[in-house]
Known about the structure:
Layout: H1 6-16, H2 26-38, E1 97-107, E2 110-112, E3 115-117, E4 124-127, E5 130-131, E6 142-149, E7 153-160, E8 164-172, E9 177-180, E10 183-187, E11 193-195, E12 212-221, E13 224-234, E14 242-255, E15 260-263, E16 266-269, E17 283-291, E18 294-302, E19 313-319, E20 321-323, E21 326-329, E22 332-343, E23 355-364, E24 367-375, H3 394-398
Parallel strand pairs: 1-19, 4-7, 10-13, 11-13, 22-24
Antiparallel strand pairs: 1-2, 1-6, 2-3, 4-5, 6-7, 8-9, 8-12, 8-14, 9-10, 12-13, 14-15, 14-17, 15-16, 17-18, 19-23, 20-21, 21-22, 23-24
Amino acid sequence: xxxxxxxxxxxxxxxxxxxxxxxxxxxxxxxxxxxxxxxxxxxxxxxxxxxxxxxxxxxxxxxxxxxxxxxxxxxxxxxxxxxxxxxxxxxxxxxxxxxxxxxxxxxxxxxxxxxxxxxxxxxxxxxxxxxxxxxxxxxxxxxxxxxxxxxxxxxxxxxxxxxxxxxxxxxxxxxxxxxxxxxxxxxxxxxxxxxxxxxxxxxxxxxxxxxxxxxxxxxxxxxxxxxxxxxxxxxxxxxxxxxxxxxxxxxxxxxxxxxxxxxxxxxxxxxxxxxxxxxxxxxxxxxxxxxxxxxxxxxxxxxxxxxxxxxxxxxxxxxxxxxxxxxxxxxxxxxxxxxxxxxxxxxxxxxxxxxxxxxxxxxxxxxxxxxxxxxxxxxxxxxxxxxxxxxxxxxxxxxxxxxxxxxxxxxxxxxxxxxxxxxxxxxxxxxxxxxxxx
Length: 438
């Protein structure tokens, strides 16, 4: 029998071999997996109130594995195609609301937690409860943004909420710390420090005892704040006789027999009638003024939590605190679920004093069903990257106190991410851009 040459046999085998179908692209396979998880019934139902820590349904060791989210924008666990840092897709369900609580990182319109919120002529503004305008917004201001998803995130309301306003009583230039109303204010090397009337930048050493300043920042607990913006309202030697004071925080103690209120690390004398509507544990804003150098409290008002509207998407940055019913930030209860995604850590990294970025959905007033948690974030960075990836010493600028020991550098694992086209980024402008009305 005549043998077939080897080259012809190879060709015949290739011709008769069944043709392989092309494999699904990795990015598409990843999205199919995510959609399959989202479709699981009851994936985001609130846990049984009878279970977990203090009836919160959160177990002591957390739920889920390492859970690093391979997708998302800027390390936040937010879907890259979403709107305003919430994972809402353009053209999705009409009327979907968005709540963002964080810091103004840049303008054009405004960026909060790494996402753009468009300002329109219909956008409403308030500064510590008083009506304001877009011109009252400044880099580093801590804000709460209420927005709607309509192809993009349209800001309906922007609320600037200062942490402390008052006279500087102590300055530690070496530690970049101030004391105001008994609160300790920690400034970073990148904290914007400006003059109220001109936006002129100031060095930290320009701040003196007696100056009247406003502080935007994040509450670290126990009377400590991380300043994200400092504005000098008046130099001490030119301040008027009566200047404002303001303090936000949680009521830690009431002393009705002494007409005294304790908020954070500060004890304030108040009119006894103001204490009747206040309870320990409430979040409040204290307002008043200095008269002849003495602090006089005029009002103590409970503040509504940012996460109120059930069904709203939520994006926020803040420090973790341990509440009676589990983990909280900004007074908002955080409920982890079996599909909560973690980045730069896992459930074991949930510790009081850790700064985190949270995304999720409001399941009850003041309660968020957490979809993703990102650890070690920088509140002023556009993309909220993990701080160990930044230049040496940058973490100390924002999150580490001067007395805290240096932590070892932690490298995040390399993760293959889907190839998603990034939106075009607008150049930074001096003031927020306002969209023209139709």
